[in-house]
Amino acid sequence: MKKKMLAAVFEDEGKLVVKEVDLPVIKRDDEVLLKVKAASICGTDVRILEVPPVFPATKGVILGHEYIGEVFEVGEKVTEFKPGDRVVVDPNITCGSCSYCKMGMPNMCERMVSLGEQIDGAFAEYSLVPSKMLHKVSLKLDPELAVFAEPLSCVVNATGKLKVQPGENVVILGAGPIGLLFT
After folding, report:
1. Mean pLDDT by 10-residue block, N- to C-terminus, for the chain (183 residues)?
2. 65 C-beta neighbours (distance < 10 Å), count
3. pTM, whole model, 2 decimals?
4. Sign of the C-alpha dihedral computed for residues 146, 150, 151 and 154 taken in this order
5. Name one Pfam family in it (predicted).
6. Contact of 100 with 108, CB cutoff 8 Å
7. Full set of structural domains in the chain with CATH
């Protein structure tokens, strides 16, 4: 197997460089190596690249957090996935042990890190992901549609909180991907 791959690396304010990097290698028994099938550009990615950045990211990280991949290799304790499975990724990796995680509020995790922001993400040929962050999808699902799993999950979560009743009027501000998914 090859040892290098192409990736879009955040090098500095306003600087994203496509270059050859080392292929990720499974180091923990709960990790999964994915072959990236499709990735989308999020507003977060754009804001990371603004000068000055509106959203912080670690210099040297591979950007991208909205993606679908094919399982290429699994760590020795991974039993729920096998090579060839198609998966979407929850990019926000939580600790599971802080007070917020224990209260069932992982979105407020005190030690959260995100793929494509603090650790390498999707704008590459391969991506290394903890198995707990993966969700199987059908092989029949078009990868170009499956990349919407992460932004659509934001919309579904928000819609559940709104409790809009039939016949009520709502206003959706913004014609970006999230606003369009609401309509």
Report:
1. 93 96 97 98 93 92 97 98 98 96 94 97 98 96 92 85 87 84 80
2. 22
3. 0.90
4. positive
5. ADH_N
6. yes
7. 4-146 (3.90.180.10), 148-183 (no CATH)
